[in-house]
Design a protein that fits this description.
The protein has 73 residues and is mostly helical. It has three helices and no strands. α2 packs antiparallel against α3. The model has no long low-confidence stretch (mean pLDDT 80).
Length: 73
């Protein structure tokens, strides 16, 4: 038994559904559970704390100096 022109029947609906699902999977921004993320470096955390106003300039400079000497030595 041969079927002609059934592309516009039920097959078209399934192609449409698959295209919507593929678009939804790749276009939806979300975090993948179990995905490894880069941890912030100590200097990055220090800069964020200084930018948010949690620490003063003197505390920032002292902590930055300590961090840089720890990395170097």
């Amino acid at each position: 038994m041969m079927y002609y022109n059934n592309f516009w029947g039920m097959n078209f609906i399934w192609w449409f559904i698959w295209m919507i699902m593929i678009f939804w999977i790749f276009a939806t921004p979300y975090d993948i559970p179990g995905q490894r993320r880069r941890k912030d470096a100590p200097l990055d955390i220090l800069q964020k704390r200084f930018a948010s106003g949690e620490i003063t300039n003197d505390q920032y400079q002292e902590s930055k100096r300590i961090l840089k000497t720890d990395v170097a030595g």
